[in-house]
Amino acid sequence: MKMQLISLTLENFKCYEHMEFRFDGRNASIFGANGTGKSSVYDAFTWLLFGKDSKGSAKSEALKPIFTSGENEGKVKDSGAITSVEAVLLVDGVERKLKRTYYELWSTKRGSAEKTRDGHSSDYFVDDVPCKKNEFARRVKAGEALTPAELAERLFRENEEARRAMVRLGVLPEIAGRFSGIIGFQPLDQEARLAITVKQIRALGREYNLDIVQVAPDTAQALTPEGDAHSVRSSVCVLEGLLSPLLAAASNQTAYCLAGLPGNLRLLPAYSQSSSTTALAASSSL
User: Fold this and answer.
1) At a CB cut-off of 8 Å and minimum separation 6, what does 16 contact?
2) Quick one: 138 and 237 in the same domain?
3) Whether residue 214 has pLDDT greater than 60
4) Are 91 and 53 members of one domain?
5) What is the C-alpha to C-alpha distance for residues 119 and 148, in angstroms, rounded to an integer?
């Protein structure tokens, strides 16, 4: 596996308030006087990848932004600042982006006017998509990023979780669907857009106690909007309007395949997708 460092961006990391280094995949040397932050650049890269500085230390206190001059030189500048390091890499010719953040958790206890530190936390991103620490470490080790199917699964899950939470709080389902559909953003290719559409259709089926085990490829294509994650994830309201009459009329005693095009969508029993006599049809249009 060939890995090249394209750029490295530091925010509130040690002596750097903000700094972006452009390496463009070339060999690079960093020169400077003692105490000017040469080692901090290397520390930032190793911390991003492994959670440790170049000497193997994992002490989080050493990450905080510090004063670089004056009477407070070396002291922490802002305990509440969010430290982040982001790298753009070229892995076997494919561009990948990794990001790790660190921030302290503070709260004001009852009866006290002063804030106290409760601990710290970190967030992890692969190609701008949030992920868990273990998954981040696995992808760093493997040098891989999210596949279209994995990306579709995550975006769909986040959308559903947000929509259900809003409904539980009393927001009308159709409004909740539209608002939850614009939470987060990630450019999607055609494969990922189709995967999200199919997952949305199956989820709508489950709300009617129906198991839609298959969506015909041309049907999925016709129901998938062109564009980014915003338009795809917010399309659940449009799908619900198209499919509700069909789903409401169906029996819950069998698995179904969704076929046809807008204006002539059909639910076919999965064991007989070609039968027109057993198809449930409803007129619909985009």
Assistant:
1) 10, 37, 40, 44, 65
2) no
3) yes
4) yes
5) 35
What is the SS3 assignment for 121?
A: strand
Q: How confident is the model over 109-133, as a mean pLDDT?
A: 86
**pLDDT higher at 103 or 147:** 103
Domain end among 100, 127, 145 = 145
Q: What average pLDDT score do residues 175-184 get? A: 43
H helices of 60-147, in order, are 133-142
Q: Tell me, what amino acid is at 274?
A: S
139 and 25 fall within a common domain: yes
> Do 15 and 121 sit in the same domain of this protein?
yes
Q: How far is CA 191 from the centre of its chain?
A: 16
Q: Using CA atoms, how far apart are residues 228 and 233, in angstroms rounded to an integer? A: 9
Which tokens belong to 40?
Answer: 């901090």
Q: Which two tokens stand for residue 243?
A: 């499919």
Q: Single out the residue of 207, 224, 195 nearest to residue 167, CA to CA.
A: 207
Quote the pTM value.
0.50
Angle, nearest 10°, between helix axes 148-168 and 173-180?
140
What's the domain range around 102?
Answer: 3-145
The answer to whether 214 and 270 are in contact (CB under 8 A) is yes
- The residue with tokens 């692969």 is 126
